[in-house]
Amino acid sequence: MTIRVLLADDQALLRSAFRVLVDSEPDMEVVGEASDGAEAVRLAREERADVVLMDIRMPGTDGLAATRLISADPGLAHVRVVMLTTFEVDEYVVQSLRAGASGFLGKGSEPEELLNAIRVAAAGDALLSPAATKGLIAKFLAQGGDDDRDPARAERLEALTVREREVLVQVAGGHSNDEIAERLEVSPLTVKTHVNRAMAKLGARDRAQLVVIAYESGLVRPRVE
């Protein structure tokens, strides 16, 4: 199936460049362009977008606010948001994920990285761009310290089985299903089943939200390098 992509950025030139790149792929197409967050939310609904490439900094309703609106709308539950940042390591990364984004991508990424991010976001199978390190998300989610952890989410973890918790820890480490399967000596299909069950029990939209829950609940603690 063709991945329906929505571009949300206040720079027309950048949107044009993204459109040319995306439309050149046989498995995806640009279905709309938005210059601010409010327009992005409206078009996501009207154009039945699968993935939104969302700039964080836009006039009026910014990308973070727009992502929160999309995440809170049951009618847009299928929409995946990939945040576009000038620098992948900035204070907006954690806010993006907490707002409901499926991941983030630096604007300086290579074309193949951008296209790959769209595909993996649409599949719900990945969190970060290839240029991001696995420990980056832990660093930002930990910036609030123990006082920032969510007791309610910690209680919800009680609904998970022992194996589901083990898989969640691996997901939070940035590992793929194949990598987790090898680590736990089970099949990739079994891992996928555990991931899906954990998402359902915890009310997570995708793997990105599982990572947020894992760190905010205290199940996984960031390593100090």
TrEMBL record:
PROSITE patterns given in the database record: HTH_LUXR_1, HTH_LUXR_2, RESPONSE_REGULATORY
Pfam families per record: GerE (PF00196), Response_reg (PF00072)
Domain called Response regulatory: residue spans: 4-122
Residues that bear 4-aspartylphosphate: D55
Keywords, comma-separated and alphabetical: DNA-binding, Phosphoprotein, Transcription, Transcription regulation
Coiled coil stretches, renumbered: none
Domain HTH luxR-type, first and last residues per copy: 153-218
Protein name: Response regulator transcription factor
Record organism: Streptomyces tauricus
Taxonomic classification: Bacteria, Bacillati, Actinomycetota, Actinomycetes, Kitasatosporales
